[in-house]
Amino acid sequence: MSWKGFSKSVSRAPQTFKAKFNIGENTKDPVYIDAERRFQELETETKKLHDESKKYFDAINSMLTHQIEFSKSIQEIYKPISGRMSDPDSVIAEGNPEGIRACEEYEAIVRDLQDTLSPELEMIETRIIKPADELLEIVKIIRKVLTKRQHKQLDFDRHRTALKKLQDKKEKTLKDEKALYKIEGELEQATQEFNYFNELLKDELPKLFKLEREFIRPLFQSFYYMQLNVFYTLHEKMQAINIGYFDLTLDVEEAFSKKRGDIQEQAEALTIVHFRTSGNRASNLNSRHNKYGKKAEEAKKYGKPAESAAGEAPPPAYTATTNAGETSLGMSAIAKAKAKPPPPKPKPKAFAAATPQVETVTALYDYEAQAEGDLSFSAGDVVEIIQRTGNENEWWTGKLRGKTGQFPGNYVKIN
Amino acid sequence: MSWAGFKKTVNRATTQVMMKAGQIERTNDREYEVEERRFRVMEAAANNLQKEAKGYLDSLRAMTASQMRIAETIDSFYGDSGARDGVSRSYRQAVEELDVETIKALDGPYRTTVLEPISRFCAYFPDINECIKKRNNKLLDYDALRNKVKKLVEKPDQDPTKLPRAEKEAQMAKEIYEALNEQLQTELPKLIELRVPYLDPSFEALVKIQLRFCAEAYSRMAQVQQYLDANTREEYAQGQLDSRVEQVLQEIRDLSIAGGA
């Protein structure tokens, strides 16, 4: 701040204070006040428009990038994995060559999409973000004028109060007379300045509002068409996807469970994926191990986690189709009923469900809340049941450590 | 860390140093190592997949959310005039529907078919890593104990019970190590083999969800068109809208409060 600016703000300080707490006489121009309020709205809205259109632009870009990256990552998964990278002969014939081809095709489509969209997106940048940016600049200049008017108003009020005080004085000294003369001059000037800015703003702000509306209409229309084009292109290109690898006739979830079969159960039948839970038992054994002896027994126990895990494995008797049909049916029914993702695939666990009303259940597995209102717990926690159904494939409500929430019934065992 | 755990850590660190110095022989299991390397490749790829799956959903959400805020802003700019031609209103409605209905409707399937299966698969890794760590520790223990036996054989101790005891310990360590090693060696390839059937359905689901999103987004957007003048489209194509924007901007600049005139 310049020295001049500083001294001005010091001399205005008392009046600023008075204005804030509404002491003494303060000028209030209702027309102007309303205009100012509208201007403030305009200021924030312009800023929002500018920021959001930028975010929009970025989001579309990142959406496409993620699509490509996803495809690349899944391609990595499909590729045969060799333990000896440098030795090409070590590659065993595994992996998923058709999948890789599908990835390549898909990636080509998305890349093409990205190329086609980039001029469209460019247009958002030049025709929406840039004008909004320029308007924002202008708004900043206007904001300065508003501030200036505010200052002039303070000056005007300040001088007016000072003059009144002097005029009200009964006996005026010579010094007072001089001051009176000076203040009259100052007031005259302040009045002129204040009126100038006040009138100017009152006159031009409405013009600005009108222009703004005129500005926003074509801008919005442009934006709308750009958006429409973007979605149109997306739609067209995606619709043209003709990768034989995908079965596009089936519903998303249906096809998923059909393709998936019981792979998850198979994977979870492996002991190593539960190592931390089943491994604990092993380490307990180890500590006893240090005390020697009972080797044979230890060894037997050691093998036990594997056995028990195998016992939990699903009966493979289901044929893939009935299994898929059932799951998807159940899934969609629950989804409809609760508008909430169905419980993560039922874990294989056989127990009789028809036990009469019991108070608590013990968690068999860790469960992490996936939506608001879910109850998190870790395996072994005892959850108090608030409400439950006879079907373990539904969501139950329970209470744990003072928290109430829903959880999949197949994650717990009734005590 | 418990005292026992601390002791183990110290002992193992010593063993490792001795191995580096060539004092203790190291057991090498090449077959296992190949499997572990394969596992690492898969782990990296799957984690990447998880990241991208999340990123896609996030950017989709970000897009519809900012669309909605833009619509709100435009609606408020339009003010009373917006109510007259209904464009901004219907646009706002379309965008809101897109955000609320389409995204929310796709959110569930996306979670169950893409996000959750992938996350679940990735969630196996910490357990497996724990198992690998344990195997390596047990191997170190075994190597150290074997070395002890070797030393005792070469230079018998005065206490005759020491050797058999050490042998017994070494045997026990070997059993633990071998059980873990065996487990990893048979199960890692199984899991690696399962990765494709496990994760593959998610890819198809993702593509389908995208298709559905694009189709719905387009049809919702296209509905707004009926509220616009037929010739607006022409004007847009010919760039007249842009020149209009420019023109108004100039008019605003010309206002004396904007520093013009």
TrEMBL record, chain A:
The keyword Phosphoprotein applies. It comes from the Eukaryota. One of its GO terms (biological process) is plasma membrane tubulation. Residues 17-269 form the BAR domain. Gene3D superfamilies: Arfaptin homology (AH) domain/BAR domain, SH3 Domains. GO terms for molecular function: lipid binding. It holds the Pfam family SH3_1. GO terms for cellular component: actin cortical patch; mating projection tip; medial cortex; Rvs161p-Rvs167p complex. Keywords: Coiled coil, Phosphoprotein, SH3 domain. InterPro entries: AH/BAR_dom_sf (IPR027267), BAR_dom (IPR004148), BIN3/RVS161-like (IPR046982), SH3-like_dom_sf (IPR036028), SH3_domain (IPR001452). This is BAR domain-containing protein. It comes from Arthrobotrys flagrans (Nematode-trapping fungus).
From TrEMBL, chain B:
One of its GO terms (cellular component) is mating projection tip. Residues 17-237 form the BAR domain. CDD domains: BAR_Rvs161p. PROSITE patterns: BAR (PS51021). It comes from Arthrobotrys flagrans (Nematode-trapping fungus). Keywords: Coiled coil, Cytoplasm, Cytoskeleton. InterPro entries: AH/BAR_dom_sf (IPR027267), BAR_dom (IPR004148), BIN3/RVS161-like (IPR046982), Rvs161/Hob3_BAR (IPR037429). This is BAR domain-containing protein.
